Amino acid sequence: MTSKPHQLNTYIQGQGFPILCLHGHPGSGSSMSVFTQPLSQRFKTVSPDLRGYGKSRFQGNFVMQDHLTDLEALLDRLQIEKCLILGWSLGGILAMELALKLPERVTGLVLIATAARPKGSHPPISWQDNLFTAIASIINQIQPSWQWNIDNFGKKSLYRYLVQQHTSATYRYLAADAMSAFLQTSPAAHGALNHALKAGYNRLEALEQIQIPCLMLAGAEDRHITAQSSLETAQHLKNCQWQCYANTAHLFPWEIPQQVNNDINAWLAAHPQVIK
Description:
Elements: E1 10-13, E2 18-22, H1 33-39, E3 44-48, H2 65-77, E4 83-88, H3 90-101, E5 106-112, H4 127-142, H5 147-152, H6 159-162, H7 168-184, H8 187-198, E6 214-219, H9 227-236, E7 240-245, H10 252-255, H11 257-270
Parallel strand pairs: 2-3, 2-4, 4-5, 5-6, 6-7
Antiparallel strand pairs: 1-3
């Protein structure tokens, strides 16, 4: 049973056709800046902290369905009749769910490192992994993108499964957006996602109902949601363009931001109906 809508802390930038930008897990509305900053030059970007994430604090447990209730209420509150949705990871799953729930309000989907039947290939995590990740993260907060830290701790930490290109720009994004989002993700948010995954979340069969144009972007070395499971989803969508980036992983928008945003802009130019 879903609860009543929870008012979400939301970052709004720019003017024009609305693009709802949905973050992943762990994440926050501000961690979508890699997309919202360029898009808000031409569009109105709406980037909420989902329930239990960022500044959208929530007492008690909830289920994944509650995110959809919150997001529909957000669109109503902002008087957004139609929007394009861009979703990263968990945000992409919610984007597809919203397109199924509100087909008359969603004009198109930009799906980033996501899948309707998400599968991972992440190796077991050791105590050294956690230790090196903690050290790398703390040092990176104090001195972002310090090469010595990247070489000695970053590349030996769990970041090696999240990114392939350990560039200074990538580590600046990690410092600015990843650490605070991780620390602000509530146990209930972890619980809601884990419950859905353990229940064997799979919406492939429903995807034939989604007729709108879609763009699916994936990182070839993604261990959290594999490129193969993203491709499987793209093949189940009627009108989906597929792009896979070599030598990138789950956080590929922070590895190759220019290329990703250029490809999104090219897709928007080819599908003007999604922004009208």
